[in-house]
Write a structure and sequence with these properties.
This protein is an alpha/beta fold. The protein folds into 2 domains: 190 residues, 2-enoyl-CoA Hydratase, Chain A, domain 1, CATH 3.90.226; 65 residues, peptide peptidase (sppa) fold, CATH 3.40.1750. The chain is built from 11 helices and 10 strands. Strands 1, 4, 5, 6, 7, 8, 9 and 10 form an 8-stranded mixed beta sheet that branches. A two-stranded antiparallel sheet has the order 2-3. Strand 5, helix 4 and strand 6 form a beta-alpha-beta unit. The radius of gyration is 25 Å and the shape is globular. One of its GO terms (biological process) is proteolysis. One of its GO terms (molecular function) is serine-type peptidase activity. InterPro entries: ClpP/crotonase-like_dom_sf, Pept_S49_SppA, Peptidase_S49, S49_SppA_C. This is Protease-4.
């Protein structure tokens, strides 16, 4: 009976998800009818910044930079969009991916669109790279930002491999083909090679910040030692323009774009059928867990008194 209930629940969720996809497809057909009212587009940058398409499923979508760039192009091509608010909630990620999106933001500004950053909980490292490519930056006083710097991780597991009896051999086309391999010590020459690469990317990062924030390069380097700053500290240091939330950023973007009255908001990004039907996934997950736990308790004897079980297991 318990297994049957689980199958029924899963079947209902899949059916409702498919209905949500159908509604979403219907909405997509009407996207061509663009209102001529002045709009502000909101583009979200959530999570680790990585290149490529990201990962998608029926219940959720985690887009890579390809999706973000696609949304930037959509905002660029929509004549009714006068400004874009880039809502960043990201600890950073790939330097190449951040650079790719940053260049597209510069092109968007060159097309005459105003681009304003709104920092959420965190907009650090690659997240700040993107922010530095926009016209104006808003942050909450407690936002974690900064982390201007570059690192390349490396782990040496040679001693661990010896303890468990793992020995690797390679036939290489060149002496540095297996650079950063974890089963051996890095040579001094290889360390120098990697350091030169890290310094090169770091200098590119500093250039982006110096140009975007109209700061002297040496001044940026004093701030760019990898440390993080609160939004309040970042404003005092010139890394942030204003303190405020996303709605303050929207108002600021509206003023910069010369929009009169209250602008229409156009949010970019795919909403999953799960969220369309049920709202935040945490809530429905909790309800589903409670339902399954109730069914399980009715079918199984725990073998111990209820008061002896952990409180979170008890069904009341």
């Amino acid at each position: 009976m318990y297994k049957k209930s689980v199958i029924i629940v899963i079947g209902v969720v899949i059916a409702l998800s498919l209905i949500g996809l159908a509604f979403q497809g219907f909405g997509a057909k009407n996207k061509g009818k663009v209102s001529q009212a002045d709009k502000i587009a909101i583009i979200y940058v959530d999570g680790v910044i990585i290149g490529g398409r990201g990962q998608s499923s029926v219940l959720m979508e985690q887009g890579g930079t390809d999706q973000i760039i696609k949304q930037i192009h959509q905002a660029r091509d929509d004549g009714s969009v006068k400004a874009v608010v880039l809502r960043i909630n990201s600890p950073g990620g790939s330097a190449a991916a951040s650079q790719e999106v940053g260049e597209e933001l510069k092109k968007l500004r060159a097309q005459g669109k105003v681009v304003v950053t709104s920092m959420g909980d965190v907009a650090a490292s690659g997240g700040y790279w993107l922010a530095a490519c926009t016209d104006k930056i808003y942050a909450n006083p407690t936002t974690m930002t900064g982390s201007i710097g570059v690192y390349m991780p490396y782990a040496n597991w040679e001693e661990l491999y010896k303890k468990v009896g793992i020995y690797q051999e390679k036939i290489k086309s060149g002496p540095h083909k297996d650079i950063l391999s974890p089963e051996r010590q890095m040579t001094d020459e290889e360390r120098e090679i990697i350091q030169v690469m890290v310094d090169d990317i770091y200098n590119q990062f500093v250039d982006v910040v110096a140009q975007g924030r109209k700061m002297d390069k040496e001044q940026v380097k004093k701030l760019a030692d990898g440390r993080i700053y609160t939004g309040n500290q970042a404003k005092q240091l010139g890394l942030v323009d204003e303190l405020g939330n996303m709605y303050d950023a929207i108002d600021g973007a509206s003023q910069l774009a010369g929009i009169e009255g209250k602008p229409t908001i156009k949010e970019f990004g795919k909403t999953s059928p799960w969220n369309m039907l049920f709202g935040p996934s945490e809530k429905i997950s909790t309800l589903l867990e409670q339902f399954l736990l109730q069914k399980a308790s009715n079918q199984m004897n725990l073998g111990v008194p209820l008061e002896a079980t952990p409180e979170k297991w008890q069904v009341k």
